[in-house]
Every structure is written in C-alpha cells, then in structure tokens.
Write a structure and sequence with these properties.
The protein is of the alpha+beta class. 43% of the residues lie in helices and 25% in strands.
Length: 220
Amino acid sequence: MAFLSSLPLFEGLSGEELAQVAAIARERRYRKGTILFDEGDPGETMYFIKDGKVRVTRLAAGGQEQVLRVWGPGSAIGLVVLADKAPYPASAQVAEDAVLYALRVDDLVGLMPDSRALAANAFRLVGQRLRAARDTAHDLAVHTTHGRLASLLLKTSEEKGSTRFNLGLTHQDIAGMIGTSRETVTRVLADFRRTGCIKVEGEEIVIANEKKLREWMGEQ
C-alpha cells in the first residue's frame, strides 16, 4: 500500500481505492535479461518498478535497436497501453535484477469508472508520455549529436528537480537513446566538460552552466 501510494498513477486515491489496486497487484521478481514484453505483443500488463531497472527499446527503420529509456524505481512500464489496450509500441527488458508489481490492464481499467482520481491520473500521465515521445522524435530529427545529448541532460535535470543527478545510464545506453555510438557519447561529454557546461563528480553529473549547454542545442 505504501509503495502504491507513492506512484503518480495512484496519487490522491482514497484508502479504499488503494486497497482495490493492491488486490489486483502481483509482486514479481525478475533476473537481469528477462524480457517483460516484445514490441507488438498484446498490451495486457503494466509494471511498476519497486527495485531495479528496466530498459525500453524499439527497432528503428534500419533494424537497429533504439533505446527509448532506462527506467528505475517508481517508474511505470507499459503505461501507454492504458489509453487503448493496443499492442506494446516497444520492448521491455530487465536491465538489472528487479522487483516489479504487475497489474493487468483490464483489471486496472475496470477500477476507473469508480475512481475519478485514477482516471484523471491515467489521462494526464499517458499524455505526458506521448509528449515526451514527440519531443524525443523532434530532437533526433533536428539536433546534432551535441544537441541531443544536451537535451537529454537538461530533461533529466528537470525531472529530478536538481542540477546534480546520477544519470543511471551507461554510455552505450545513452548512445542508443540519441542515435549515435558509445565512443561519440564519450567525446561529446568530454566537450561539455571542457567548455564548462557540466562537471562529473564520481557517478554524478552537475550542470554547471545551463546557458552554455543550451547553446549546443542552438538556443541563444
């Protein structure tokens, strides 16, 4: 109950409503490498990460794998299928040993007529995911590699509410997200450090000069 109440999808639900959600949730443990679902599979189940990480990918036009996101604790996997229960638009694989809560989409949708808060949260969160997907497509289409990585760092900073954060991604993951190579990611990060845009302190990135970082995106 405590974990469910901390999730954005269940924000503002009453104790009784949370109890109904808890009754249909199933805790599951997965080993690294487990496939939760493949792109095109029926959108039947949503997952919420309690511990661990899940990598979400899709196949690009050339058959290459594109990393859309690596999600950590508190994140929802498969959220967009709440909108229409259509097939999953991407694939999901456990990136490190994980504890997840699984909820059948039909069961969750069945609770919405009696929970205005749940329906409103679902509508809002699906909209946010769709806007994020649109923004990612825009970044890939119009920005240079430097601009795409700058955008990723700024969006992460905004999400975490701090200019200091642990990105939680390998250089290979970042490369898959912005459509480049691991070596290029390393070089671009070095450029950002050299020009004073960021600092790297241990596993944390610090945005030292947001204005300069935005200049890499073509913003003045």
